[in-house]
Amino acid sequence: MVGRRKFAAVAGALLLLAGTPSTFAFPKAHLDRLKCVLLIPPLLISIANVPPSRQETKEAFYHSWSHYLNYGFPEDEVAPISCSGRGSDRKNPNNIGLNDVLGDFSLTLIDSMDTLVMMDDQEGFEAAVKKVERFVQFDLPSRVQIFETTIRVIGGLLSAHIYATSPDLGHQIKDYNGSLLTLAVDLADRLMPAFDTPTGIPLPRANLRRGIDQENITETCTAGAGSLVLEFATLSRLTGDDKYEAVARRAFFAIWERRTALDIVGTAIDSVSGLWLSAMSGVGASIDSFYEYALKSYILLGDEQFLDVFALSYAAIKENMLDDWLYKNIHMVTGQVLTGWVDALAAFFPGLQVLAGDVNAAVKSHLVYYKIWMTYAGTPERWNYVNRKGSVELGWYGLRPEFVESNYMLYRATKDPFYLHVGAQILSDLQTRARVACGYASIHNVQTGELDDRMESFFLSETLKYLYLLFDVDNPLNHDGSNFVFSTEAH
Ligand code: DMJ
């Protein structure tokens, strides 16, 4: 299998790099099947007989969604192997691996609402909104992470609210009374105490009922503190209350002000002292969405201060981190390379490069992750490019969306069917390796195929959404010429 995959990776790379139209590699019938573009009626074969990738992605979503509703809800997630619900770890409040994300607020329900919209399931969307109205409230003793709660919950609520209220988007809900916005305001108000620091950089966590408790750690990652502007600005614009946008902007620029002479920011900072706690920088974990929100905040809000940050950061990344194929992790002051690995989160970067208009660079950086995917049928959390024998440094694949997202962005920009083919391979690997009784299970080790009983909400809100949008070429969103952006949680 590895041999076949290696060949495919090299072949794909050569086709792209030589500029040969990769259509030659894919007969038209095959392409039509991937995109679900139906041929002239007499040639039409029933969709049920030949399920194209779009249908299959939809089925994968409903397999996950229906089992969440039946076995997971009202908890945050469904454990896909044992078919049971999972919420916060109440016995161990310090289990931040779970408790940062699982706040006992039906997370998967909230995070998935706009995927139902993408799939044009108005009935499902309205039913989900009704469930949120009936069951979700935030007066809870949960200590959650500001970033995770903002991108998954506030982002999910706001996106669904916008669809429910905008006649021109085609998913308006008739008797909807703004309840999702009210919930988003309530939640944001519960997070606001975290921004009350001398630097304006938020503390990483808040207790939804009690605010800031004493045990709160002051170390936060750059992505966590600096990627809140899209959600908080949207909340301000929808409510007319500037305070949300103001705190998120202040946090973003407080981090940027602390950049080094190389125009580089680090991955971890103390929100009280403003001192860097990690001198490492890169484009992956702990920093990724800082760059993403710099560019997307400019696109959404039109404020050139954000564009300036993106332009300077992007130039610094290319100057200091790029080494032919790879964007390496470096020391933020000296520029010295610090690690021999790249991580799975950095697979979002080609998508951002597309958005920035640097498509050639995106084609190249995507191929690194394509090669990784084709070798392991997943993107291991850390892949070591130095140690050939131990190249899988952290071997799990938690069904993350980043590679799927970049692949989708590249298809939209180039229309090169190669990316449809990559999407079909991703889908097929997910079906073979991760599909279980009640959804899709995270892969504990990409080399052995061992599974974990976990399906994070981003699998429904991002991974399957981007995969569906890749194949659903006529989706209205793919032809929306406005300045909408996907948040970092794909809302
Ligand atoms: C998601 O919650 C978001 O995409 C975030 O930006 C990074 N982590 C996960 C997916 O990997």
In summary, what is this structure?
This protein is mainly alpha-helical. Helices cover 48% and strands 9% of the residues. The model is unreliable at 1-24 and 37-51 (pLDDT under 50).
Give your account of this protein's structure:
Belongs to the glycosyl hydrolase 47 family. It is an enzyme of class 3 (hydrolase). The protein is mainly alpha-helical and 491 residues long. Helices cover 48% and strands 9% of the residues. It has 18 helices and 16 strands. It has helices at residues 2-17, 28-35, 53-72, 96-99, 107-118, 122-135, 146-165, 179-191, 222-226, 229-239, 243-257, 288-301, 304-320, 349-355, 359-376, 402-414, 418-433, 457-471; strands at 77-79, 84-86, 143-145, 205-207, 219-221, 268-270, 276-278, 280-281, 322-323, 326-327, 330-331, 341-343, 382-384, 392-394, 435-436, 439-440. The strands form seven sheets. It has a three-stranded antiparallel beta sheet. A three-stranded antiparallel beta sheet has the order 12-13-14, with no helix packed on it. The radius of gyration is 22 Å and the shape is globular. The two termini are 36 Å apart. Mean pLDDT is 92; it is low at 1-24 and 37-51. The protein binds 1-deoxymannojirimycin. 1-deoxymannojirimycin binds next to α18.
